[in-house]
Each structure stands twice: as C-alpha cells, then as structure tokens.
Amino acid sequence: xxxxxxxxxxxxxxxxxTKLNVxxxxxxxxxxxxxxxxxxxELCSTTPLTKSRTxxxxxxxxxxKVTISGTQFLSGCTESAVVGLVDRRALAQQQGTCxxxxxxxxxxxxxxxxxxxxxxxxxxxxxxxxQVARIAYCTADHSIRPNIFAWIYREINDDxxxxxxxxxxxxxxxxxxxxLAHSMMxxxxxxxxxxxxxxxxHKSGSTDDFAEDSSTPEDxxxxxx
Length: 225
Description:
Blueprint: H1 5-23, E1 58-68, H2 79-95, E2 102-108, E3 111-117, E4 124-131, E5 135-139, E6 148-156, E7 162-170, H3 174-197, H4 208-211
C-alpha cells in the first residue's frame, strides 16, 4: 500500500531508534538525525569488492603428481615422472578434460603451500600443504622442459605406510624454476637449523655442516628427518 513520504520517513525513524536502543549498551539520548527525502539522496557509484590474493609466492601451473619407487634419489631421478605428467596433461588438453590448474606455490620454512586459484587466477579455492621435513628431493633440471620444478614428497597413508610422490609445476620461464629451487633450499636450511636447535634432530658435528653443504639448490637431497 502506498504511503506519503512523510509517513514513510516517520516509520523509518521509529524503526531505526528501536534498533539503536537494542544495540546501545548505555542508556543515553539518541543524537538528532537529519533525514532527507529518498528523492534527494544521490547514490554514488561504488567499486565492487573483490577478494585480492594476499599470498606471496610463485605463479605456476600444477601438472599433478605420480608415485615413484625408491628412497635414494640422485640427479635425473624425476625426469621420467615429469615426462609422464607432461604427456598426461597434453592428452587431457587434446580431449578437453584439462581443468584449470592456475596455482601459487608458496615456499616457507617448515611448510610449502600450493594454492589452487580460481579461473581468473585471483582467489585461492583450495590449498595443499607439504611439510618441508618430508620433502626428500627437489630439482629444476629437466630435459623435457627447463621451466619445470619438481619435488619428491614422502606421503604418509592412513595405515602409517608411506609412498614417495613426485609433484611437478610448470613455471613461466627457466629462471622462475631456478628461483623455486633456490627458495626450497633456503627453506630446507632454515627448517633443519631450527629442528637441530630444538633437539629434534641429532647434532652430528657443527650446526654449520648443513649450511655449508656444497650441493646446488636444484639437486638437493636432504635427509627426511
């Protein structure tokens, strides 16, 4: 039913005062509120709020994972696994079954986070985490594509058995892959230094032994701890 503007205004004032009385803790007089007729209010244009990406990391394309055998890993040990992941993704693209895999790889001491982003590459939809102490090997040296970074992760199953999974991501270029390898090595150093200082790892000699390791970042094989 239509009401004059004055009656609508009076009703709105009464409703507002009622809500404010409920929300106000101290019983004080309400300040005088000056209302304008709806026709006199100019609506300002607003920018839609979007959830911005606040995670610091490297933009990558997640290729997936594959279980591999063995517990001792040397240079080139991820090559066949990476070839299989690249071929599998190419086949999925041909068949039109390849879903969006824009991701953000965040490497920090103790934990690596893989944020799976939405189609626009902005908001994080899901996140996978990997404990640094359970990463057995990482490398950015692959013949098939030099811009691929891979790591081997010790996955613990529900029955307490374990398997070694090779994960791979495709970076924007070769330099980005090398940076990931370097960041992972720095995460190894900080994590194991902290674990040694806390007594969670037996100190076999000086704490500088790990920092002075001459292995290159892309071919580092830290102990599983």
